[in-house]
């Protein structure tokens, strides 16, 4: 199955905000909507709904290479992050995270340590967006760390975290490890039999599933206090009460399966397209900078600072390209990207940064259109500002 954009005149390069729904996911969700049953009911319609949920649970587990019994469906990664951090912190101790985490982690961490602000340690990053592992070891050496939460891939720069040394150091210190893998899952392989995190959050719409459904991986045997966010009927083994979103879950499962089967071909193709985009923009525009560790990034993410050209003005000048001036979850915020500021960028540079994010349906034609439009837009904005001074 192939994706066809509803707007043939638009180069959609905002996959980090949300990916187009994969045809397989749409088909599975629509099929699930044809059943009436509640997945908790015991009659035939209920069993049919439950079977669709069970299939999706196995499809998501296969994508992560874990047991299906370790998957808890949620409304998305934000809920999964909240559930993971609140449960892991419930026993008390320190919470360690980084300055470049998504607000769903940072704001949750601040909220649950509000009465004990000294219990929160926020690690710095270097100019490439890589977490200071020395500072992590120092925090762990101080003792009594309950959980370390570091994202697998940054949503703004695509920079990857090497989780193996993080897990080893944390587990040696008796701490749990949570990773917000929202941007990684479905885009790069992850094997949870080898990557020994205790908790992992994901959201289906980042890899072509429906919006409003995600999951939390909870490793079997993890020393984790039972602490649900929602109380009620005891669905999802008590971790997440509420009638299951069967259609959304079925779509998530189908998207996970499609992503797993297509990944081997998608990763190198998307990497080539991203490199083509970056090389063309740097060559044709000049006075711009690619942000993040260039050799440790997601294949489809490019964060570029166009000096002397505010990102909002660039985006307004190229309506035929869907890109972003940062995290879609922070759109309209009066402050610049906390990620770029943490990497040592100035406010002016942060305000002049555009994020392009590619995915499974991105074409060479999309890249050609984006390059041409971005070049025109940046030159137009720079010219307009120069003439106004």
Strand order of the largest sheet: 2-8-7-6-5-3-4
Helix run count: 11
Classify the secondary structure makeup into a structural class.
Answer: alpha/beta
- The separation of the N and C termini measures 52 Å
Number of strands: 12
**Rg measurement, Å:** 21 Å
Shape: globular
The overall average pLDDT, rounded, is 93
Helix content: 25-40%
- Spans of 5+ residues with little confidence (pLDDT < 50)? none
Strand percentage lies at: 5-15%
Sketch the major β-sheet.
Answer: 7 strands, mixed
Task: Spell out the helices and strands N to C.
Answer: EHHEHEHEHEHEEEHEEHEHHEH
Protein architecture, described:
With 389 residues, the protein is α/β, with parallel strands linked by helices. Helices cover 40% and strands 13% of the residues. The chain has helices at residues 23-33, 44-64, 77-89, 103-112, 133-141, 163-172, 246-285, 311-316, 338-342, 347-351, 364-388; strands at residues 11-12, 71-74, 94-98, 120-123, 145-149, 176-180, 199-203, 214-218, 288-291, 301-306, 321-322, 353-357. Strands 2-8-7-6-5-3-4 form a 7-stranded mixed sheet, sandwiched between helices. Helix 4 links the parallel strand 3 and strand 4. The chain is globular, with a radius of gyration of 21 Å.
Please specify the SSE layout and strand pairing.
Blueprint: E1 11-12, H1 23-33, H2 44-64, E2 71-74, H3 77-89, E3 94-98, H4 103-112, E4 120-123, H5 133-141, E5 145-149, H6 163-172, E6 176-180, E7 199-203, E8 214-218, H7 246-285, E9 288-291, E10 301-306, H8 311-316, E11 321-322, H9 338-342, H10 347-351, E12 353-357, H11 364-388
Parallel strand pairs: 1-11, 3-4, 3-5, 5-6, 6-7
Antiparallel strand pairs: 2-8, 7-8, 9-10, 10-12
Helix pairs in contact: 1-7, 2-7, 3-4, 7-11
